[in-house]
Amino acid sequence: MSATDKAKNKGEDLAGKAKEKLGRVTGDKDRENEGKADQVKSNLKDAGEKVKDAFRD
Q1: Contacts for 48-51: CB closer than 8 Å, 24+ residues apart
Q2: Residue ranges per domain, the chain?
Q3: pTM for the full model?
Q4: pLDDT tens digit string along 9-46?
């Protein structure tokens, strides 16, 4: 996994966490759920990159 991909995934994860917290604070369940979904998507991308790395080695 390249450093760029790691940084993008981490950025998406952090943005998702921020969205989730903002939704929780403002009582906006849609935004909170969207933040959770962004985090899951980021984690799946990260896992996919790790699988690709495992097959490369």
Answers
A1: 49/1, 49/5, 49/6, 49/9, 50/1
A2: 3-56
A3: 0.82
A4: 999 999 999 999 999 999 999 999 999 999 999 999 99
